[in-house]
Every structure is written in structure tokens, then in C-alpha cells.
Amino acid sequence: MQKLLMDVDTGIDDALAIAYAASIPHMELVGITTTYGMAPVDYSYRNTRKILEYAGVDVPVFRGAEKPLQRTREYSGRIHGTDGLGNTLGPVTEVASTQHAADYLIEQVYKHEAALTIVATGPLTNLAMAIRKAPEIAGLVGSVVIMGGAVMTPGNVTKFAEANIIIDPEAASLVFGSSLPITMVGLDVTRKTLLTARDVERWREGRNHLGKSLAPCTQFYLDAYKELHPYLQGCALHDPLAVGVAAYPDLVQTVPMFIKVDLEEDALGRTTEDIHREGSGQPTTKVCVQVDADTFMQDFFQRIG
Length: 305
Ligand code: RIB
Ligand code: CA
Known about the structure:
By secondary structure, this protein is of the alpha/beta class.
């Protein structure tokens, strides 16, 4: 059976992605590593455990990076709330002490090798730390599906950059510069999978426990999208789509490419084709350029309420 490890910064759409992943029968969710991102790492850790509780599954969770490799991180709380889950859970009271996420990632790659798919839906700091410590894992792991970047469309933080990449561009550069077998699920496709007000209403009014639990934070996310990205008419299911692509690769059409992450300040975090990579052989990243949004949305809603 395909083994799945998620690396998350939970985050409202990460929460939806975790709930979705836990419900897909042909994948075994072996563990979840957490990072700072939308909120500090202790929030991501606590939020992840809460979502697993809502979903009724018992999966080990690990605490990872507290900040980007070289930069600082400030939190606005605008899209995900100050607690990462739309201010539905409030402050963290207990701080976790676990094996570091990067060490757990390395351990799991050695344990499952090609059977393991890693789905990363936050800044890529944990993955970069793992690659730095054990570069050989790049040749062992089955695949790495990354929600991040934008090749054909504008960014969502700057006109060039997507959030997960620009928060830790050095980590993203290291990860995309490695030989990891990556599928990049960027804004090019995630902006085409939209959850609407009607969908949240159905969860809120329905009888499914998981849907009911997820409705309040999803409403916050939807409201934030309405304010910031009114042209979209819904909120983007970025992270759930990464899980969908891991489970059903035929959902997307991809183009093989080497990806370069810009580190120059004028285009920080931009992800473009790396046409100058030297001594390179076959491209290691498959960039998703088209998605069968209807099939994905159907499966997502069938599994969550
Ligand atoms: O740009 C979208 C990404 O940023 C998603 O992973 C969201 O959860 C945030 O981390
Ligand atoms: Ca995320």
C-alpha cells in the first residue's frame, strides 16, 4: 500500500488536506510533520492533532522548524487567523517535545523507500533540513508532492511569489535544486479548485461530524478570500489538491522541468523553469499545468461529509 507522510503548517487548507488524506483508503497516512508557516510551529502541531481528533484517526505528529533557514517570519493571521485555524482554537497552552520532524522524515524514507510519498503543504524548511542532513534520501523516496509556487500565473504574496516558497526561499531553492522526484502543485492548478459558501453551509447544516467540525474555520478562510481575492468566488483548496494529486496522479497534466527559485530581492520566491541547470540529465520536477477540478472536488466532498 502507498504510504503517505504529510509535512504541514496547519493552516485551514492544511486542515482540510489532513482530513481528506485520512479518508483515502488506498493510502496509509503514516505520520505528520509540522512546521511554522501560517502560525508558529506549536500552533501547527496542536492544530494538526486537533484535526486528527476530528477525523477520528490516530497518527503520530512531529514538531519541526521554528523559522526559515536564514530569515525571520512574522505572522499576520489574515487568511488563517492568529491560531492558524480561523481563531477557532485560540492560544496554545502546551508545548510539544518530540523527535524533530526532519529526523522523522529521514527515518521514514529509509523505512518505506519507494513506497513513500511525502506531501508538503507549508514552507519547505523541514524538507530542506532533512536533505541537508541526509542528501541520499532524494534517491530513495518514491515521490514528493509540493503545494507551492506558480509558473504560469502570478503569485499570491507578491506578483511573482507564492506563500510557501517566499516564506523560506532558501529552503525551497535547496529542495527544488536537489534530485528529489517532485510534483509541483502550484497556484497554476490550485486556483482552479474552489470551495464556495454553499459548500460550507452544507457542512454546517449537515449531519456529518467531520464536516461540522471543519465548517467554522473554513468559513473564516472563505471570508478572508472574499476580501482579498474577490474575483475567485470561493477559497482555493491548495493543500487538499496536493493530497488529491498524490492519491490520483491522473487528476493533473504535468510538464517536466527543472525549477529555479529566485533569491534576488526583486523577484524573491519566483518559481520559473531553470533553463541553465548544468550537467543535469532529465528534469526532476513535474509541474502541474492542468487539473480535472470537477473530479477532484467530487472526491473531496464525498470523503468529507
Ligand atoms: O499559498 C497557499 C499555501 O500557503 C497553502 O499551503 C496555505 O496553507 C499556505 O500555507
Ligand atoms: Ca499550508
